[in-house]
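As practice, study what follows.
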Amino acid sequence: QVQLVESGGGSVQAGGSLRLSCAVSESIPCNYALTWYRQGLGKEREFVGAMDGDGRTSLADSVKDRFTISRDNAKITVYLQMNRVKPEDTALYTCNLFCQKKLPGGRTHEYNYWGHGTQVTVSS
């Protein structure tokens, strides 16, 4: 069973930085995307950013000038670098791996895994 393990969360003051990691436990025969989501207390889960299998990234408008996403292929790890954090960035950050692999006969196999999340708390 593939596991995603997030780390790097913690408490930080506004204006500071954190680097979150999402480590995939094993390689997968699919060109998957890794996506970061976050959910604040009493709020709905929201998209933060993603890196697809070809290394292209996308970030939510609320973070695109402050956060970046990178990948370490050797360790099968994706990083979320959070700079100039704000109190509104406080949330549980979770990563998701998703890929659909085409199989013979027109079938597809879906890889869809979630981590348990890492808490980020930003104080003003």
Observations:
- The chain has no helices and eleven strands.
- The two ends are 40 Å apart (CA to CA).
- The CA atoms of residues 8 and 20 lie 4 Å apart.
